[in-house]
């Protein structure tokens, strides 16, 4: 009999030290279905200790010069980049994403988040105005808020956690961060680098565990005045209620049901591969992924044929195989949930054009128990269908046809979400008209996921409250004060 494999055991990182927890939860490798790691099941007690550490570290950290904080953050970026391959391997194993995606997107961006905020923090200005008739001068100052509670999801684990930690500490706050209990490994690996980068004990504390225990303890703690959360709309609603009695500052980055609108003058050679990518990148587990594709009638048949052909080229398999386009989905439950949407669509009379239930999925021997699904395209779905209304967050996209600009704007806006949208057209006037009227925090034209970190990121309606980005994050992670001087 083969000896049992040793499990990786993570520890909380509080006050600059790794500390064990009294209980642990299992974490699975999505590509095999095996438990491979144990994650601390922290709760109120661990969060209380982290709050004490963050409180004690605040005065010294917030008093450091911007240049000093910036240098430390650049050093941390260097260290992550130095270990990029180890981080990428770990992210791919923990989340199920392809090694290629982890190597080219997640980890480079995690390092860049520190580099970006290390630079942007040096360039903000405050306001000043004079009131001569009163002999007064007014100006604003910005100060860090205090202890920031940062909670992130499982789809882009280190990328999204560092997108919060970096602006929080650059602005002079100390933090208590909690990654998803399903993808905690890279955050734990990063803790090993914090001291080497020069981040003092207590400035970054990472408490691992579930939402209802560890997450809830952070959100409900009266000494944590600010919560930055990325995750589902349902959890955000709960966080909002829990935070309300404490008047916490909230930034909520939530789900989407993102449309792509493809007009008859679109360049299909660019549009089709990009829309396949926008639908299925990272197994469709990106909040910005396209899940409703509106195609104008005159090009509908051609688009559909070519889109399905292109989708079928995407290979699904072991995340460590560099030729694979899609790896495993995060969990067995999530896989079942996404497959259920396909069943519902079929029951409603929609056509499943490729993928789940249509094509066969051949997996390597070691991956037979992993959580895999083929990229799936559905057509002839009604706008009222749950597949067109609810966030599915998996490799499933719906294609429907439209006739007029006015009609498609109304239908694209006809969901509760408002995160991102994509327009494909070569008519500049139309692009401006449509982009302005779409209810989405981000609109890409003739491209997808081209990010400019200086500009605001976030959603409207049920997709969130607040924006992130250089200036937006700085404003969120600081308090502003107006000072008036009479002379
Ligand atoms: P989730 O809401 O289930 O969990 C997100 C985080 O919140 C996890 O760390 C979880 O442990 C924690 N949590 C859960 N319950 C909690 C509670 N009661 N109190 C405090 N914390 C709690 O979301 P998920 O399934 O991990 O992630 C997928 C969702 O995230 C999707 O809806 C996706 O669209 C969204 N998302 C949004 C963005 C964006 O920038 N808008 C980016 C990525 C993902």
Automatic annotation (TrEMBL):
It is found in: Cytoplasm. Pfam families: Aldedh. Its main location: cytoplasm. GO terms for cellular component: cytoplasm. Its EC number is 1.2.1.32. It catalyses: 2-aminomuconate 6-semialdehyde + NAD(+) + H2O = (2Z,4E)-2-aminomuconate + NADH + 2 H(+). Pathway: Amino-acid degradation; L-kynurenine degradation. It is an enzyme of class 1 (oxidoreductase). Residues 23-483 form the Aldehyde dehydrogenase domain. The active site is at residue 253. InterPro entries: Ald_DH/histidinol_DH, Ald_DH_C, Ald_DH_CS_CYS, Ald_DH_CS_GLU, Ald_DH_N, Aldehyde_DH_dom. Keywords: Cytoplasm, NAD, Oxidoreductase. GO terms for molecular function: aminomuconate-semialdehyde dehydrogenase activity; retinal dehydrogenase (NAD+) activity. One of its GO terms (biological process) is retinal metabolic process. Belongs to the aldehyde dehydrogenase family. Catalyzes the NAD-dependent oxidation of 2-aminomuconic semialdehyde of the kynurenine metabolic pathway in L-tryptophan degradation. This is 2-aminomuconic semialdehyde dehydrogenase. The lineage of its organism: Eukaryota, Metazoa, Chordata, Craniata, Vertebrata.
